[in-house]
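2024-03-11 09:14:02 INFO queue: dequeued item Septin, len=456
2024-03-11 09:14:02 INFO validating residues
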Amino acid sequence: MLPLYLAVTVLKGRKASRNVTLAVEEERLFVQAHHPRFSKQPLSSVPLAGHVGFDSMPDQLVNKSVNHGFCFNILCVGETGLGKSTLMDTLFNTKFEGEPTQHNQPGVTLKSNTYELEESNVRLKLTVVNTVGFGDQINKDDSYKPIVEFIDAQFEAYLQEELKIKRTLHNYHDTRIHACLYFIAPTGHSLKSLDLVTMKKLDSKVNIVPIIAKSDAISKSELAKFKIKITSELVSNGVQIYQFPTDDESVAEINSTMNSHLPFAVVGSTEEVKLGNKMVKARQYPWGTVQVENENHCDFVKLREMLIRVNMEDLREQTHTRHYELYRRCKLEEMGFKDTDPDSKPFSLQETYEAKRNEFMGELQKKEEEMRQMFVQRVKEKEAELKEAEKELHEKFDRLKKLHQDEKKKLEEKKKSLDDEVNMFKQKKTAAELLQNQAQQAGGSTTLKRDKEKKK
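2024-03-11 09:14:37 INFO prediction written
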């Protein structure tokens, strides 16, 4: 119903006319700031003698928007089992695909699903992002980090598309998160530290709409006290939640009233129960029936009215003008870009690029010089180490050479001694053999004499 509502609003010429006037005024100030020759030529209002036709611009905007379609991205943050998927099905009166998650997830992961919806010839590309495993771990210190990283990744993707030379933003699928429905467990006491820390980390990056899930679990009196307690804790901890805008007179009254009902206490159900002569979405209990669309039972109708039918476009606008611009500014400042020089004079993108390039080249040369000096120093140190090692090798070589000579001398002396012993042994052997031969010869002559004597 949002597109039809916005179309009627634009056709009435209220907010759209004011936006057109502001855009013209901003363009005039831009021209005067960047083109001094036009600064002395203020715009003047002149009457028209007849109908020209530019009063059809709101109609043109509506037709163009309807033909192009709209996109809306919702992030559901909350512990497993609080009915996030059921509430999404109830909000958009359909059945989205998905299976219930278990409580045994090792970490927090984000699951994104995109759907094409159509109502009264108005097309809506809806993306629902669910935090799987949020609050299921024993250590919950870093549970918010995957959520923050996911939101920043969508901002970064859009920024990269913006910085391209050839941009296609008119066909670009914008995945930036427009609304964060933060599901609070119906404890009836106070917010958990996990809820406070997570919302504090997300409030500068996304529009947070806190809701009390399964609010039929506590009584009306406890629910009223619980709402007051939640609001007090959010204020005391400096958590900035999304406030429905009151600057547009067409919705100022209803938004001001609904801001006092935050956080919304909701009940979701896709089951239809017959009450009287009509079928209504409700939850049946042994003690009675809770009607989802009965404002006396829960705030589901208020949530649907504020989120979809009245403020969807403002959520999209706040995402772009506030949260994305903050991310873009911080990112460009980190990259060294700035709007003014030290004298507060305008600084063009070319000048910024040249300054950054010169700064980069200076840093590069400085690093090159440092690396060169470091290289020279290391070469000198290496040469000194090599010289010292060479000196040690020479000393070791001299020691080994001297040791080798000493051992060689000892071996030569031992060899000479052995040679002398061998010669001595040979001489003794020769003498012994000579004596043995002489003895044999003497014995032989004696034997001959005996034989001769016997014969005689």
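2024-03-11 09:14:37 INFO annotate: The mean pLDDT is 85.
2024-03-11 09:14:38 INFO item closed
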